[in-house]
Amino acid sequence: MVEQIKIVVLFSGEGTNLENLIEHFHGKRFGDKETVIIPITNRPNARGILRAKRYGIETHIIDHKAYESREAFDVELVRTIEVIAPSLVVMAGFMRILTPVFTERIEAINLHPSLLPLFKGACAIEESFASGMKVGGVTVHWVTSELDNGEIIDQACVKIEPDDTLESFAEKIHRTEHRLLPEVIKKLLKL
Ligand code: GAR
To answer: Engineering a disulfide at 57: which of 6, 52, 79, 153 sits with its beta carbon 3.0 to 4.6 angstroms away?
Structure first.
């Protein structure tokens, strides 16, 4: 008997991490478990929607602009996730500040492109590159209602070489994200 493990992936834009997770997990067998990816976005024009479609996967779209408050959006997001009843919720480029409506009901992990607690927020790669530090990195942590602040699950370093540009550094960060996030998910789900 094969047990189906549902992984919800929340994203807002490009969706390269979503695509990477689809490649690693969608319809894949791990012993007696089969994993599927279920994407949700808050942006109707997020590029990741098309990436998922190429694998025959439809994305749930919950347009945050249609809700009058953060809480009202979070109520709908929680409702959608609870209907799906996933084993894990992964935020991969989900650019929303969440309220306790979400964080008190849903256990989720978040991917962040810096060595937290350094460089929280939406410009982590740029700030990390401009900091003068010789390393940047990637963090996966539990989500709380405080931005980029929950318990750290795992991290990986990325060297900042003298000849790196912001673009080459960002590329290394994304490559590292694409390696670290599936590793963490496998460990958490015991796959
Ligand atoms: C990733 O670099 C992720 O770490 C970052 O957004 C990017 C999404 O890329 N998240 C944050 O900055 C969260 N604060 P993607 O849409 O191509 O996966």
So the answer is: 52
Give yes or no: 112 in active site. Answer: yes
Structure tokens at 11: 């994203």
> Would residue 121 be called left, alpha or beta, if left means φ above 0 and alpha means ψ between -120 and 50 degrees?
left
Is 181's C-beta closer than 6 angstroms to any atom of ligand 1?
no
pTM of the model: 0.97
111 Cβ inside 6 Å of ligand 1 = yes
138-185: per-residue pLDDT in tens? 999 999 988 899 999 999 999 999 999 999 999 999 999 999 999 999
Task: Report d(CA 83, CA 8) in Å as an integer.
Answer: 11
Residue to substitute in 40, 50, 51, 111 for testing ligand 1 pocket (most ligand atoms within 8 angstroms of CB): 111
Task: Domain 3-188: give its CATH architecture.
Answer: 3-Layer(aba) Sandwich (3.40)
- The atom number, within ligand 1, closest to the CA of 14 reads 16
Locate the domains of the chain by residue range: 3-188
